[in-house]
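#onboarding

Welcome to the new folks! Below is a worked example of what a typical request in this channel looks like: someone posts a single protein sequence, and someone else replies with the predicted structure as tokens. Don't worry about understanding the tokens yet, we'll cover that in week two.

Example request:
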Amino acid sequence: MERQFTEQEQVRRSKAEKIRSLGMDPFGDSFKRTHNSKTIKDEYSNKTPEELESLNVEVVVAGRIMTKRGKGKAGFMHIQDKFGQIQIYMKLDNVDPEEYELFDKADLGDIVGITGTLFITHTGELSIRATKYTHLVKALKPLPEKFHGLTDVEERYRRRYVDLIMNEESKSAAFLRPRIIRQIQNFMDDRGFTEVETPVLQPLLSGASARPFSTHHNALDMEFYLRIALELPLKRLLVGGMEAVYEIGRTFRNEGVDTKHNPEFTLMEAYLAYSDLEGMMEMTENMFKTIAKNVFNKYIFNWCGDEINLDGTWKRISMVDLIKEHTNIDFSKNMSFEEAKALAEEHKIEVEEHFGYGHIVNAFFEKYCEEHLIQPTFLHGHPIEISPLTKKDPKDPRFVQRFELFIGGKEFANAYTELNDPIDQLERFNEQIKERDLGNDEANDIDMDFVEALEYGMPPAGGIGYGIDRLCMLFLEKDSIRDVLLFPHVRERK
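Example response:
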């Protein structure tokens, strides 16, 4: 395929060949730095011009040319590194003439190395007076215009590397996300959890209700799924005696793409032997508050048009109580499926063929309640039909010991008092197969190895899963999941 270049791209390629003709590699060699823009500003921004001159501080830095001005025998430029920008003053009298010519011919986007001394300009800007200019990399494509950047949102995600160069917010999010995840790891490690890794390729569909991606392993001649959850392998580790485990890993669901969902996403699941739902609530509330305090030093975040306050004691309410609050219908009463179905039809809720009583209860919650859960709320008491891996509520076996954390009307976590009864678990798996036969293509397979593992005895346990991407959206105050993923999935260019 023959590529077509713009006039500016052709000029830049010619400049690259000119640099090569001078005996230099236009795409550079290693370069040893002594400082970066942050260390310079942290250490010297409080100095007076006179103090800097007397200190005669020499620095060696490198970065991408972002601005360039001046003609003749002197000029200025800003170079950008990982931490930000710093101004460079170039003067013909201070550097080798060949180096000054390289500067004079340089383009925005080129990567250069600078040796020089620190000083403060007449406008008060901490800068570097260059004594040596080193060409490192010739940029063959021009950067977007300074004040417009990548205005096409799809292009921002498709060419994230350019977005990171031009957009300080995107770069800040890229560095803050790992800090959030590291804080989570530190929090879990401090509580005695062990971080583990489990297989991404799984022979059975299990652990959540979702449509999978499937693939074929040639050597084994077997069909595999990309995992939709982390749950069952981690529970096997509880059987094995590891007692407190968690995993932060990539998970895949073959579903829609929107501002809150990406087909490839990061999930964290944690399981704690001898704990329960109450233990998972306490851990969750403390983890969110720890991230807020240690990474952001605040508890109030603006997200999707709402002011979210993570401080204080979080609300707890059952699903049936919340539905009653918004519709005056009490699903905690003994009610037949036919009565529930009549209520659904009266409220224009579609009853699908595989629906049981609990599916109708959940449909009422989704239609009338979910969007109202703005401040952090633990919603508990889910119907058994939508919770195949959870212990029953001993007071009412139509419901289970489960909670979901909602913030801003969106689910952030899903927790269980884990089902460890192998007989009950097998019955639940069988019910899932019946649902699949009735058209529920998100129903789980029967994992007999997991049932067998439970037969060896799994301790009572609490377990929880967190959507890490959505958690990052809240803390980074981003309305779209694509703004917290470095490489979100987007449609191909047409």
